[in-house]
Amino acid sequence: MKNIKFYLLPLLCVMVLTSCSENEKDKDPEENTSINGSWRLTSNSFGSFDTDGSRVWTDVKDGHKLELKSGGNFMSGEFDCKEGTYKLSDKEITFTFGCETFDAWLLKYTNGEILYSYEIKGKYMILSEIGSRCDEGCLYKFVKVESPD
């Protein structure tokens, strides 16, 4: 019996020590913190809340693609004006469209800029309009579809 305990104790120690180490293969492949890459709109929420106070999301069929390149350029399929630059500051992102003026959601943006707060949760990015036409906020949920260039 002493022999079994003598051999099991070191084996148990090795198992505990190796199972606690973190390496790249142990990380969740869905975990993502980079904003760069291609994203597709999957759902939106325009200020609707459930009876328990949770936000109501509506699925978007064939949502537009948003590509954020590492150099600060973007391409979007949302508006007639399809490309421009973006700038990150804290947890905000400013999209400056490359057109002089453009119509978006029946609003006229004369400086070509739209400001959002953003949050990345796993493989999802949530954009929330700042200065929105929605009293409770307009939110857009994107899923990452490709790795950055």
UniProtKB/TrEMBL annotation:
Record's keyword annotation contains Signal: yes
Record key words, sorted: Signal
Signal peptide: 1-21
Protein's UniProt name: Lipocalin-like domain-containing protein
Organism: Fulvitalea axinellae
